[in-house]
Specification:
The protein has helices spanning 2-12, 82-86, 120-124, 161-177, 254-267, and strands at residues 41-42, 96-99, 113-114, 136-144, 150-158, 182-186, 189-198, 207-217, 220-231, 234-242. It is an alpha+beta fold. Strands 1, 2, 3, 4, 5, 6, 7, 8, 9 and 10 form a 10-stranded antiparallel β-sheet that branches.
Length: 268
C-alpha cells in the first residue's frame, strides 16, 4: 500500500517528490537515480530536476528515515544567485531535514493540465514550477523530525513583479471558483483534487493565499495544505503532506514559512 501511495502521489503532486527524504516515518529506501549534487534549480523551458521539493518516492539512494542528513539525502549547496541564497539549507531549521535531491524518475514532468480552465492555476501550482511565467525556480524538500510523517515542499521562484501579482490574484480566484474540485492530467496520467477550501493562514510577505485540498488517484487519497506568498518579485510556494496517513490534517509549519520568507528578504 505504501508503494501504491508513493506512485499515486507522484502522479498527483509532481512538485512534492523529495520532501519525505527527511521524514522519519517512511523509513523506506528510495529507488531510482542518485541525488542531483547541484540541488534543484530550474529555469524556464524543460525542467532541470526542479521537482526536488517533494513527496513520497524521493530520488535519494539512502533510507528515508536517516535523521542525521546522511545516506540518501543531499544537503543544499550554497549558491551565488539571489534565488539560491533565498532557498532553505540544512541547518536553517532545527528539527527538520532539508534536501535538494533530484526529481524522482517516476514523477511526470511539466505542468498538469486541469479539466476546468478556471482551475488551471491550482493545477499549475502542483507542477515543476508555480506557473509558466516563473523565470526560474529552486525547490527544497523538508522532512519534519518533530511531527512524524510531515513532509513539506518549499520552492522559491523569480518573476516579473507584475506576473507575481497576477499569479496570486489568479490563485485566489481559482480557490473561490473550484470548491467542488477538478481533475488534472500530466503525461497522460490523471488525478483528482477534491474539496478545495480556502485556509486561514497568517504569514508575512506582500500578499498570500492558502488552501487545502484532497488529492486522489489509483484509490489513494492524500490531504494537502498549500501556502503561496509573494515578496516583491519572488514567489514562495509551500506544500504540506502527511505521508504517515491517519486523520491528522497536514499544515505548513509557521516556523518553516517564517524562515523561508526571512531568507527571501535577506537575499535581496
Amino acid at each position: 500500500m505504501r508503494m501504491k501511495a508513493r506512485t499515486a502521489t507522484a502522479v498527483l503532486l509532481p512538485a512534492l517528490l523529495s520532501a519525505t527524504v527527511g521524514c522519519g516515518s517512511t523509513n523506506t529506501p528510495a529507488a531510482g537515480k542518485g541525488p542531483d549534487p547541484k540541488g534543484s534549480a530550474s529555469a524556464p523551458g524543460p525542467s532541470a530536476g526542479s521537482g526536488g521539493a517533494g513527496a513520497p518516492g524521493s530520488a535519494g539512494t539512502g533510507g528515508a528515515g536517516d535523521a542525521g542528513g546522511t545516506g540518501g539525502t543531499t544537503a543544499p549547496q550554497r549558491g551565488g544567485s539571489r534565488l539560491e541564497r533565498s532557498a532553505l539549507e540544512q541547518g536553517d531549521l532545527t528539527g527538520y531535514q532539508i534536501s535538494a535531491n533530484g526529481k524522482n524518475p517516476n514523477a511526470p514532468d511539466g505542468q498538469p493540465q486541469a479539466d476546468r480552465k478556471v482551475c488551471q492555476p491550482l493545477a499549475d501550482i502542483m507542477g515543476d514550477k508555480p506557473d509558466p511565467a516563473a523565470r526560474a525556480t529552486v525547490n527544497r524538500g523538508i522532512g519534519s523530525q518533530k511531527q512524524m510523517g510531515l513532509a513539506v515542499s518549499a520552492s522559491v521562484s523569480s518573476y516579473a513583479e507584475s506576473d507575481a501579482k497576477a499569479l496570486i490574484a489568479r490563485l485566489k480566484a481559482a480557490v473561490a471558483a473550484c470548491a467542488t474540485g477538478f481533475t488534472a492530467t500530466v503525461e497522460k496520467q490523471s488525478g483528482a483534487y477534491r474539496e478545495v477550501k480556502a485556509a486561514d493562514y497568517k504569514t508575512g510577505g506582500d500578499e498570500s493565499v492558502s488552501w487545502t485540498t484532497t488529492a486522489a488517484a489509483e484509490g489513494v487519497t492524500a490531504q494537502v495544505h498549500l501556502v503561496v506568498v509573494r515578496q516583491g518579485d519572488t514567489v514562495v510556494r509551500l506544500m504540506a503532506l502527511n505521508v504517515a496517513g491517519g486523520r491528522q490534517a497536514p499544515q505548513v509549519p509557521h516556523e518553516v514559512a517564517d524562515k523561508q520568507l526571512q531568507k527571501v528578504r535577506a537575499a535581496r
